[in-house]
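A common beginner's mistake is to predict each chain separately and then try to dock the pieces by hand. The better habit, illustrated here, is to supply every component at once so that their relative placement is modeled jointly.
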Amino acid sequence: MSFTNNTKEVLRLLKDAEGYISGERVARGLNISRAAVWKQVCKLRKEGFCIDAQPRLGYRMVIPPDKLIPMEIKDGLKTSFVGQEIFYYPKTESTNLIAKNMAMDGSKEGTVVTAEEQTKGRGRLDRNWLSPAYKNILMSIIFRPEVQPSQVFSLTMLTSLAVVKAIKTITTLNALIKWPNDIYIGSKKIGGILTEFSAEQDRVNFVIVGVGLNVNFDPSIYTEIKDTATSLSKALGKEISRVELLRSILEEIEKGYNLFKEGRVTQIRNEWDTHSLIAGKIVRITSFGITEEGVAESVDEDGCLILLDYKGKRKRIFSGDVSLKMMAS
Amino acid sequence: MSFTNNTKEVLRLLKDAEGYISGERVARGLNISRAAVWKQVCKLRKEGFCIDAQPRLGYRMVIPPDKLIPMEIKDGLKTSFVGQEIFYYPKTESTNLIAKNMAMDGSKEGTVVTAEEQTKGRGRLDRNWLSPAYKNILMSIIFRPEVQPSQVFSLTMLTSLAVVKAIKTITTLNALIKWPNDIYIGSKKIGGILTEFSAEQDRVNFVIVGVGLNVNFDPSIYTEIKDTATSLSKALGKEISRVELLRSILEEIEKGYNLFKEGRVTQIRNEWDTHSLIAGKIVRITSFGITEEGVAESVDEDGCLILLDYKGKRKRIFSGDVSLKMMAS
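With all components supplied together, the output reads:
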């Protein structure tokens, strides 16, 4: 949906007002009729904004609008294709699922799906992904790269990197990436990337990259994750603007994706390595029921972890769950 | 849909009759009412059979039922899961597309989609796939193997192999496989496999394997393919039963898939090699705009062609179009 200047101006006046602002004042300010103001208020409500209307008092923005509303995210977004189309769901099964269906139906590259709450949120290997409504970032992007299936991991890499960089920009916190697809602050998880794709033998049709990120959320409300998860607000000691953070993530993703399209995968991988939680550390990896230990050296272009075992042998680990043998001092 | 014995018996009587058979005779034969016979005829018509009904004369099967009707295919099908569910479309966009949508909605492994005609039939890399109605085999199968994306090529392999074996059984013709996904008789193409899949980084959600096979079709009707394509009827000099051939293909696919699930990929690959059109031959391969020449040695487990070039170097070719430098004598 595209919005007229009037819609944006009405939104601006409502946001700037302390308490109620009369329809007449808004109408006069924009040189439009009171009926036209009412029409704009209806449009904004449909978009997801909560606007109270009282006879004699006028209009009031009810909650500070830190919902992941497309109009809010796009306002000031410096990208040319990522997030130019955003679809917003207060509640849905999973943003990856919606994006997958949209991609099947031909939605274009860069299309973003955001949600406040997921009923079937999940991480890698169908693991549950917990997230209370209106607290975190849940979003998925459609990509249509002209690559082979083995190159898809680069999209997970560049998205992890984008998330870490955006966190740094908005909060100054240093987040790290834990192979293959998690984001950590210190020894606790704050987010994850879920990459899914549709392909033929030798080419990819589309890739969906989903991001789940704990922002203004207190993980102690879920016993399952209270000891292993954290959030940006917990690490920072205050809440932050989800809209601002998401905008920054989308901008970083576009930058990374442009590098990827230029074939600069080595640059992405090197940067990824410098933000790796496990690079150079002794790790234990459980993969398909087998546990291996060694030093996590790096990641190759297919996304395999290169593990140097105690006998000095190098192994490519395709997939697995990593734990650090000792936390970095 | 499942069918009662009555439906099957009515079908049998109609097929066996020379010309018309009266409703009364059918009713007496099965010890059911004439109204019940009429009900079964309606069921059969809905299933795709053309049955003429005339006052005083009775019923008559109009065309020999070599349509790819599920009831016909399942009659005598010796499989435990492949083709236990078959969905039949006289005309559809593409069986792979239907199967993909079904798989997204949770359809189970072994589900088959067949069509008589496709409006958007295609081969690898979106190339057009021509097939006139009611002449060929167009079908797709849903698989849900617990494997990584790099292992998907084995499904293309085992399906190619199943097609070649079924052709041998039903027609005694020796078809060969041309890497990566075509079926040939002599120097002409008679079919192709189109494998598509949905995956995460380290596991496959589902795989759709599509088969397009020229059976009772005269390729000279299409100028685009008249010099490069053939069909089984052309090679054999007579038409064959598509239903019988499809049944045999489904049975061979199930056997191959069971081997695959037991981890016997090497066995599949070895068998595939013995049916390869290009193994040991000098070939020219065009892949992503680059042309290479050499001897096609074998295929590795990821589906890459191992090419021995003129300098004695081995190369893994991921994807490409192959032409034989000289035809085998």
